Amino acid sequence: MAKVGIMHSGSPDTAQKYIDILTTRLQKDAKTPPTLDGPHWASQEGSLSGMAQRLIQNNVELLIAAGGSRSADAAIQTRGTANKPIIVFTSVAPYILASTDCSSLLIRFSIMIARK
């Protein structure tokens, strides 16, 4: 069973419904639903790099860095040159894309999909 960590640069006030959609899809669409560690919110836990470090120390296999460039950058920088965990992130600025390697995956959630 995979262990998935979720961190977000914002707060549940603005992004909870999108995280709920994500976690529901992970649980329903996976052949074997993953164990979830999170979501962890910057508005409640502070440092993004601290959240990323805790998730990495908790041995997540997949780290979802949601909420834009700051979250993705913190996860990428905290992981460093290691190839695990795999980092998945939502929309980011071009400077983040330039710093990634092939083990990272860019995904975009659209408002239309979130409303379904």
Q: Give the overall pLDDT as a whole number.
A: 81
| Largest beta sheet: strand ordering | 2-1-3-4-5
Count all strands and give the number.
Answer: 5
Content-based structural category? alpha/beta
Number of domains: 1
Give a structural overview:
There is one protein chain. The chain is of the alpha/beta class and 116 residues long. The protein has a single domain (11-115), classed as Pyruvate Kinase, Chain: A, domain 1, CATH 3.40.1380. Helices cover 46% and strands 21% of the residues. The chain has helices at residues 12-29, 42-45, 48-57, 69-79, 94-98, 111-115, and strands spanning 3-8, 35-41, 62-66, 86-89, 105-106. The chain has a 5-stranded parallel beta sheet with strand order 2-1-3-4-5, with helices on both faces. Strand 3 (62-66), helix 4 (69-79) and strand 4 form a beta-alpha-beta unit. Helix 3 (48-57) crosses helix 4. The radius of gyration is 13 Å and the shape is globular. 29% of the residues are buried.
Topology of this structure?
Elements: E1 3-8, H1 12-29, E2 35-41, H2 42-45, H3 48-57, E3 62-66, H4 69-79, E4 86-89, H5 94-98, E5 105-106, H6 111-115
Parallel strand pairs: 1-2, 1-3, 3-4, 4-5
